Here is the input.
Amino acid sequence: MFRSGKRWQRIIPVALVMYTIAYIDRTNISLALPSMSADLHMGPAQAGSAAGVFFWGYLLLQIPGGYLAERWSAKRVVSILLVFWGVCATATGLVATAQEFWVMRLLLGVAEGGVFPAAIILLAHWFPPAERARANAYWMLCQPAALCLASPLSGWILGHWNWRVLLVAEGAIPFAWLAVWVATIDDRPAAARWLPPEEREYLLRELAPKPKKHAKEPDRRIGEALIGLPTAILVVLYFFLNCGSYGYLFWLPSALEAVRKVPSFSLGLLFAVPYLLAGAAMVLNSRHSDAVRERYWHVALPLLLGGVVLFGSVLSSQSAPVVSFALVCLACAIFYSCLGPLWAIPTESLPTRSPGVAAGLVNAIGNMGGYFGPLLAGVLRSYTGNFRAAFCALSASLMLAGVLAFLLKLACQQREGMAMGTASSP
Here is the structure.
């Protein structure tokens, strides 16, 4: 088994950096929001809406992006979108009003919408199921990596210049990475001249379509699979996960600043700590998930435990701020660790012959939690005058996602049982 083969050294790093850039351009406003809100005259609810409207635009290209990546070319889909989102991210730093900011965040969401499902399909073309949770987790290190690496840099830029320089400078990075992406990535192992012959043969063998376990189980059309119970549960699960995680992401810097005034660079360093821990937790959980070939418990337990720990940070926020910050960091590490196993599920367990479309649907609707989570947190902050109720709501959202992971396991088991019954019937 070529677990340390060339594809790990080539596909994963290039894809990781690509989506790290996307995640930076998506989330760098979390540090910029305090100064942006003042300059553009936005209240907390308005700022939360503008931060989260990205995900309304994100809906548009999810299913088309997954479909085109699967039927045409993941490499070409991402190449086109690199240019589109670079233009939008740079323009976000040039807005003059809150309304213009809202529009540019919406367009940035459209631009990035097809990238995620295209990358999921690319990884599925390069990594067999026994390696897929690790491949997904290593690629998804882009999320904590973006925040660990960019937060101190973004804080430094804000300290020396302003949020406009920050957004324009970081928004231009996709144009530089486009050349690397085009020169390095191939859609499938069969087309990769740099791949050793024995590794190519291994991949072609492991990734070849497997015979159905139940010969009489009927093929399901794409539409039937997308409205099935397992897919619906996964969509809702991912929605509540994103409510919690993006609400956490966009409002944690403001919450830290509200507790104690700190310089922008120091705020960036503090903001990086939970995501540094999250990167390590993602690798550990995904490696264990692949080792035991189990996905659902590796999703459910981190979400439940992460929600409980985040709630504990709220309870200790006034009496023990240092303990509260430690719990906030630990909560982030715990709930982020579910992402590798979670994104192995669409390509392994959903009843569809088009996993790119299924992954796009889950990511499209599920990511709407990235709109409602920050918005809810902003509204609760405006209503209560503090972040305690907001972060309690975010912790509840994570715990609900954990419960849904258990239900997803039951739904998938029920579907497999029905398929076995169909196969055994005369």
Summary: Confidence is low (pLDDT under 50) at residues 213-220, 422-426. The radius of gyration is 21 Å.
